[in-house]
Structures are given as C-alpha cells and as structure tokens.
Write a structure and sequence with these properties.
It is a single chain. The protein has about 350 residues and is α/β, with parallel strands linked by helices. It has a six-stranded mixed β-sheet, sandwiched between helices. It has a five-stranded parallel β-sheet with strand order 3-2-1-4-5, with helices on both faces. The longest helix has 18 residues, at about 35-50. It has helices at about 5-20, 35-50, 60-70, 75-80, 105-115, 130-140, 170-180, 200-215, 235-240, 250-265, 300-310, 345-350, and strands spanning about 95, 120-125, 150, 160-165, 185, 190-195, 225-230, 270-275, 280, 290-295, 315-320. The protein is built from twelve helices and eleven strands. One of its GO terms (biological process) is bioluminescence. It comes from Pontimicrobium aquaticum. This is Acyl-CoA reductase.
Length: about 350
Amino acid sequence: MMNLEQRINAFIELGKFLSQFSQDSIQKQDNVKHNDLFFDGFKHQIKLAQEHNGWFTNNNLKFAFQGWSNLLKNNNIKEWLNKYSFNNTDSKKVAIIMAGNIPLVGFHDFLSVLISGHDVLVKQSSNDKYLLPFLAKYLEYVEPNFKNKITFTEDKLKGFDAVIATGSDNTARYFEYYFKNKPSIIRKNRNSVAILTGNETKENLEALSDDIFRYYGLGCRNVSKLFVPEGYDFKNFFEAIYKWHPVINETKYANNYDYNKAVYLMSEFDMLENGFLMIKEDVSYASPIATVFYEYYNSKEQLRQKLKNDSNNIQCIVSSSFVDSEIAFGQTQRPELWDYADNVDTIAFLLKI
C-alpha cells in the first residue's frame, strides 16, 4: 500500500520529467529519474500528438507541459492537499471520461483520483490519446505501487465505482442518464468572460489577449465573451492584442477565421475585425474560433446579477475589483491545483465516495 507521501513524491518526479519539455528547446537533464528509458520516447509521443491533432502545436504543448511542471512541486501539492483528511480512504475504481480540446486537459482529474488513493479507469478523447498513457507509464516506473492502479480503455466502461465525465451539454444528458446510479461529477459546456470598464491599462489588455488566444481559444478557461460599458471604444483593445497577430499564420486557425468571416459577411452581421480576430455583438457565451462576442452593460450591479444568474455557463470571470471570484488578466490558463473546473471540489468528492 502506498501512503500519501509516496504518491506526492511520484508526481513531483513527473513534474521534473515534464520540465525538460517546457522550454523552447527540449533539453535532457541529468537529475531526472528513468530518463534513459523515457526521454526519447516522450519526444516521439509529442510528435505523434502533433501529427494527429493540428491544434496541438509545439507552443501549445510546451505551455501545457510548463504549467504542469510548475504545479507538480512539493509546496504546491502540499498547499493544495493540506485542508483534506486522507486517513480513511478505501480504494475505489474511478472512471474518467476526458475531453481532448487542449493538451492534457484531463490530467487534473487523473492526478486527483490517484493522489486520493483510488484506482483510475481512463477513457480518453481520440484528439488527445498519446501523451497521458506514456506519462502514466513513467509514474509506474517512479512508483511501482501505481502498477495495476491505472487502466486505459477504448471500450465501454465497466466495473467502476464512481465517474468524472467531461463533455458537451448534449453528451452530459447521456452521461447523467447512463451514470445515474453512480456517484459522479458531470461537466457541461462552459465559457469564460472578461469585464472591461474602459480604465484598463495597456498591460491589462495585453494580458487579456493571452486569455483569448492561448490554445486558440479552445479551452473552457479561454475568454470568449467581453462585457463592455455603453460607448466603449475598442481601439485600445485592438492595439493591445496585436502581439498575437502571428496566430493567423497557423493554418487551422486561419481556415476558421476565413470561414467565420465569410458567414458573418454573407449574413450581413455587424462585426469588427483586425485581420486575425473578429468581435461581434452577441448575447451568447460560446463564440466560434477567431471570434470574441461582446455585450454592452449600463449598470455594474445588473451585470453582477446577470453573471450570478448565468453562473452555470461561466467558468472564469476576468476582471479587476468587480466580483469576488474574479481572475486577474492573463491568468485563466494558469490555474492553481485548487482551481477546480465548474467550482466542484474534485478531492472532496473523491474522499467521500
């Protein structure tokens, strides 16, 4: 039997392993365990992931690895787990149905299940199927007690005690029916918003561009909607986001930009654009790739009430001194370990199943 300290130490070693792949140039380090067995193999998995999914560019993969290598450090993990009691956890088998919109998007659930002492049964998205099984194998070498606690499957899930499933609003309805007799966390579509007042600095707006463009806007933590005051001038916004203009050189992004622009023009929708991003007035939260929706507000109090009423549709709120749960500009794709998706405490759930 593993204790909590052993599990933590294994993930710390995994963080060290990932740190080798988080810089502009991949560099093998001497102090990483089992590097001779795994370093070249992971480079190959990265290549396969890129070939299989055109959204998984070198920059996006590097950013994901960098994020996890930073989070998987002793002080971060201890701070995250400090408030929980792991004393009486009976090992259960927890199934995870993962999304594949951004690299390693299901890793936090994978980490949470294993760090809680449970066994994990993973059903991956076909869009992101190369990275995690290899990292799981590395974990098993670092901590052999993880062997037989990690299973990947492409078949129908069976023999599990609880489930964490991430999907669209449509698939969530099937999940809720199919898993109605099991303890579950079912995640639906969510999007992130930013509240602008017109008083933002250039640095604020440049940071906001990271929240919009990182991972091409494919993540639920990416800002897809702006709330702006009546009469807001978008000039400063467009100037500040210009640092991301090379994104239009990425073929898949450019294709989406051209397609959505053509749709808007043919439909005679009013929109503003700068050659690599379109903004369109729209009440929806989920905007297409290369587009950000915006909506005007008159009253801050009315907007706060709207955000509260629509909280089930919102993952992150980016703002400055607007709501208690806000996230600073530029930080949506840099979550801490305790920043749970949909604000549902995964560890608390896993400790009571």
